[in-house]
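Reviewers of the previous submission asked for a worked example of the structure-prediction workflow described in the proposal, so we include one complete record here. The input consisted solely of the amino acid sequence. No template or homolog information was supplied to the procedure at any stage.
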Amino acid sequence: MEKIKRFFWLCSGASIALLHKCTTENTRYAGIGATIFFTGVFAALAASYALFTIFDNVWIAILLGLTWGLMIFNLDRFIVSSMRKEGNPWQEWLMATPRLILAIIISVVIAKPLELKIFEKEIEAELVVMEQQAYANQENEVKLRFQSEQDQLNKEIEMLNKEIASKTTERNELDKQAREEADGTGGTKQRNAGPIYKLKKADADKADEELRKLSDRNENLIAQRRAALEASQSKLQTELSQLEKQKPDGLASRLEALSRIATTSSAIAWASWFIMLLFIAIETAPVFVKLISPCGPYDHLLKMEEHGYEVQRIEHLAREHAAAKERLKDSAAAEADYANNRLDVLLNKS
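From that input alone, the workflow returned the following structure tokens.
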């Protein structure tokens, strides 16, 4: 049990030598260390699962997941151990704000992969829906590329048929007028094949000849358009048959699926939020413990030790300064002696 406690002390970033001097702080720092340790474990598990969905390789996922977990563990340990109790709550909260923001970001990063695992069945079902929608979108895109061409061909066929129908109506009307003129039911109301009948008959025959020529030409054009339409339809069916249903199975697709089911299901949305809040609470717990706890014996001992180091540093600087002044003083005296000697030599020569 003592070894476990010492291990958690180490995880907390606290000085083990100082903790031995203040036994009342042992449990608190063991709890802080345990929170930091298990946050790193959760980070490693979450990263391993997320990386497995990317690389589909267990060993790569485990190796990179452990690396990520150790990085989060070290970062949390640094955040907590670098906080100091200065006796000013507002100053402490201000100094802790960047650390809290960083802790929240880390919580979100850790929580998301675990959410993917927790809601794995729902995500798999949503991925099937996304696969079907993606295939339908591909089909629509392919059909849309051929749609304008086929619509144009159908429009031309319709226009050609309308030309034939219009000319047929005209020919039938002229033929009817010629018959009515011949049997006396129309026109001059005289039953005979007179000159007026012959003129109307000639118009009807002319229209019939024009209809024949128009029909021959248009039927040929219609056959060409229908052949082009069949070729276009055949090409469309070939491209549709070559489409493949690809199940979206990457990390980004799973995150999108989670977002979609959270949008449609309030229960999953609330569960997702509470999972994230849980990890935020776990990740920020060591920071909050440091903030809300009073300045204890460990903090006083740490401050005294750091103050001792500061005093030693100042004394060392003072000694260095005094030594430098002494060296300058000796140097100035030596220079004065040298100048006096030179002056004596010059005076003796003169």
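The chain has three domains: 2-118+265-294, 131-242, 296-350. We consider this example representative of the routine output the project will generate in years two and three.
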